[in-house]
Amino acid sequence: MSGGGARIGMTFKAKHADGKRPHVELKIGPAQSHALSKPVEHMRLIDRGNDQYQEKVADYESGEVIHQADEPLSSHIDHGTAKVKR
After folding, report:
1. Which residues contact 10 (CB under 8 A, 6 or more apart)?
2. Residues 44-69: pLDDT tens digits?
């Protein structure tokens, strides 16, 4: 990865014909790191059919991986909006 220039992202969602929530979601593109106060490359895959969750956050300039997760989706709890409401 290199710094500077335009950064484009994409989102993909695959739904079954019944139209309920997507069975696969993929998001790749820029995101703002509040901890680092700069943009980062963010990839997130949620595959409900295969019980898979993957996430990778990398620094645009150095390519250094800041965060990486690869786990069963059923084990990915208490994160983000999935946190228990108090």
Report:
1. 26, 27, 28, 29
2. 999 999 999 999 999 988 899 999 99
